[in-house]
């Protein structure tokens, strides 16, 4: 299933590359085609079973590629593939932390009410690449891999963006995870976090 979804995503990218176009509005050019994007992430565990005192935000990163498919000069569909580091931090005696690495496939729907400015939302499926837990003991970091994290994470992404000149773009988004993180558990705990990104459309 994972391979099928990845092949489907690459097929969409190939279609976007062959149909790449530039949509011109009054004061700005919207670039359709292939792009790269990356930036900083601020993730935490969220859900009804998570106490605000249990965890704090953990800084991570994300990077990947996307293709912009304009249906009109005010509406675009943007599938992407990203590598994203999520997790959480616990300010306890050993500074324990969870580090969860995912391959994300979002499909964003962008609306441009004005030239440059846009808002977007869409579904996202994430596949777990690696998961581990760390802690600091007497000046040394001890880590162990975990097999208690679900391999697939479904969620919704929404945010605001702006297309800069020369193909650059910036955006801020929020990832709202909807799949409980842990296997064989009834705990209502999810991946939730903010992203700040810089992109470039070729």
Keywords:
single chain; 202 residues; mainly beta; Porin; 8-stranded antiparallel barrel; two-stranded antiparallel sheet; 1 helix; PorT family protein; signal; Beta-barrel_OMP
Describe the protein in words:
The protein has 202 residues and is mainly β. It has a single domain, classed as Porin. 8% of the residues lie in helices and 62% in strands. It contains 1 helix and 11 strands. It has an 8-stranded antiparallel barrel with strand order 3-4-5-6-7-9-10-11. A two-stranded antiparallel sheet has the order 1-2. A hairpin with a 5-residue loop joins strand 6 and strand 7. The radius of gyration is 18 Å and the shape is elongated. It starts with a helix and ends with a strand. 30% of the residues are buried. About 7% of the residues have low confidence. It comes from Algoriphagus pacificus. Keywords: Signal. This is PorT family protein.
Q: Termini, distance in Å?
A: 31 Å
CATH fold description:
Porin
Strand content: over 45%
Radius of gyration, CA atoms, in whole angstroms: 18 Å
Could you give a short account of the major beta sheet?
8 strands, antiparallel, barrel
Low-confidence stretches: 15-28
Mean pLDDT: 82
Q: Tell me the number of helical segments per DSSP (H or I, 4 or more residues long).
A: 1
What is the oligomeric state here? single chain
Q: What structural category characterises the helix and strand content?
A: mainly beta
* Name of the CATH architecture: Beta Barrel
Instruction: Describe the global form.
Output: elongated
The residue fraction in helices comes out at under 10%
The CATH class label is Mainly Beta
Sequence of strands across the biggest β-sheet: 3-4-5-6-7-9-10-11
User: Element order, helices and strands?
Assistant: HEEEEEEEEEEE
Total count of domains: 1
């Amino acid at each position: 299933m994972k391979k099928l979804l990845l092949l489907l995503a690459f097929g969409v990218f190939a279609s976007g590359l062959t149909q790449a176009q530039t949509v011109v509005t009054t004061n700005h050019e919207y670039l359709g085609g292939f792009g790269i994007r990356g930036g900083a992430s601020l993730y935490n565990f969220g859900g009804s079973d998570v106490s605000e005192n249990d965890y704090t935000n953990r800084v991570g990163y994300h990077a990947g590629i996307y293709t912009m498919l304009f249906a009109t000069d005010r509406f675009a569909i943007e599938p992407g593939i990203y590598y994203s580091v999520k997790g959480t931090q616990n300010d306890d005696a050993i500074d324990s932390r969870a580090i969860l690495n995912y391959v994300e496939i979002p499909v964003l729907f962008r609306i441009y009410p004005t030239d440059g400015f846009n808002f977007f939302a869409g579904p996202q499926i994430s596949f777990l690449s690696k998961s581990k837990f760390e802690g600091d003991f007497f000046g040394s970091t001890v880590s162990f891999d975990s097999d208690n994290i679900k391999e697939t994470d479904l969620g919704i992404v929404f945010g605001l963006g702006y297309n800069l000149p020369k193909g650059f773009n910036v955006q801020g988004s929020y990832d709202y995870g909807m799949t409980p993180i842990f296997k064989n558990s009834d705990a209502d705990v999810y991946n939730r976090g903010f992203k700040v990104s810089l992109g470039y459309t070729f």
